[in-house]
Amino acid sequence: MSSYVKKIVIDALKPRETSVLDLAKALCDVSGIDEVDLTVVEVDAKTETVKLTLHGSDVNYDNISKVISDHSSTIRSIDDINVSKLV
What is the pTM (predicted TM-score) of this model? Predict the structure, then answer.
């Protein structure tokens, strides 16, 4: 049996200069991701805290982490996760 991550909710910190639209689109382009919800939770002088909810058939954390890092952002925590298995 194999298990697959279907949904992951991430709390991330990004510079204000990084576009939320560019980040969301880049995450949606990751293989296995079908939908991205991005909510700005807090705004400071230089940064924004965002909540990312990623849905897909096989969400790969390493690929997501790389895209977030490539956009000068940092994962602070994983707040929710849904894993399913195929029999």
Answer: 0.92
